[in-house]
Amino acid sequence: MSLSRTSTAMAMDFRLEAEGDVAPESLDAVMTHVESDLRWADEVFSTYRSESWISRLSRGECGVADAPPAVAEVMDLCERFRDETGGAFDARSPSGAIDPTGIVKTWAMERARWRWGLLGASGWLWGCAGDVVVQGRGPVEGVWRVGIADPRAAHDASADPAVVSTTTLGTTATALATSGEAHRAGHIWDPRTGAPARHYAQVSVRGTDLLACDAWATAIVAGGKRTLRLALDAGFDVLVLRVLEGKVHSQQSPGW
C-alpha cells in the first residue's frame, strides 16, 4: 500500500509518502502535530516576521539567552557549519543581519520527523521544498527514486515542472538537500564579495545527515569550486548544475 499527503506549514509545501498499512486517520493525526511543530519554528526563526525571536535578536532587542533554547542550538549549528565549510556557510547577511535560513527548514524537519515513526509504516519519504529524507523500505526494490528540479523553471513561471536528474535514497544515503535558483532566485550570497552567488545555478548534496546536506548545498552555491572540493573531501555526494545559454550543464561526484 502506498499513500501520500501534502500540506502547507512554515510557509512551504511538504509531502509525505509512506509504504505499508497506514490508516488515513493516523496520518491525519500525526500531520496535525507536524504542522504545529513547523509553525512554531516559523514563528521563532522567520526573518519575514518582525516579531520573531530571530528578527528581534538581529535588531539587538534581545540576547540569545532571552530566546527559546532552540535559538542557541541553531546559532551554534550555524557556527559549526561556517567553520566546516571554510566560511562559505554564513548566518549573517551582507548587511549584518542574522539569517540562519540556510539550515532552519531542515533543522525543523529533523526536530519533527520522529513523529512519522508513530505511523508504523515500513518506510516513508518526507520532502519539503527541495530537501528530502527517507527511512525504511521504498516502493521500488526497497529504495526511493528522487528527482532533481530543473533550475531553469525558476525563470519561467509557465513552465511545467521538470527534472534534470534522479538519484536513489535508502541504501547508502538517506538524505538529499538542494539549494539554488529553482526554489528562490538571488537569496544566497558569496561571503567573499557580499554579492549574490553566481558560481552554480543549483547544487544537490546527498548523504546521511539532512541538516549537514542542506548546509553544504547552500555553502557550495555560495563558495563555488573551493567549497565543492571541501564537500567532496568530507565524503558527500554532490551534483552541481550550471545554466549556460539556456542549457543545463551538470557535474557530479563519482558516487552520485
The CATH superfamily is ApbE-like domains
What's the CATH topology name? T-fold
Helix content: 25-40%
SSE topology string: EEHHHHEEEEEEHHEE
Structural class: alpha+beta
Q: Which range does the strand content fall in?
A: 25-35%
What coarse outline follows from CA principal-axis ratios?
globular
CATH architecture descriptor = Roll
Biggest sheet strand line-up: 1-2-3-4-7-8-9-10
Chain-averaged pLDDT: 90
How many strand elements?
Answer: 10
- Flag low-confidence runs: none
Distance between the termini: 29 Å
The largest sheet, given as strand count, sense and whether it forms a barrel, is: 8 strands, antiparallel
Question: How many helical stretches?
Answer: 6
How many structural domains are formed by the residues? 1
CATH class: Alpha Beta
Radius of gyration, whole Å: 18 Å
Question: Which features would summarize this protein structure in a list?
Answer:
10 strands, eight-stranded antiparallel sheet, T-fold
Descriptive report:
This protein is an alpha+beta fold. It has one domain: ApbE-like domains (T-fold). Helix content is 31%, strand content 26%. It has 6 helices and 10 strands. The chain has helices at 24-45, 53-58, 69-84, 101-112, 210-223, 225-233; strands at residues 2-9, 12-19, 123-128, 131-136, 144-149, 163-169, 175-180, 202-207, 237-244, 247-252. It has an 8-stranded antiparallel sheet. A two-stranded antiparallel sheet has the order 5-6. Helix 1 runs antiparallel to helix 4 (101-112) and helix 4 packs antiparallel against helix 5 (210-223). The two termini are 29 Å apart.
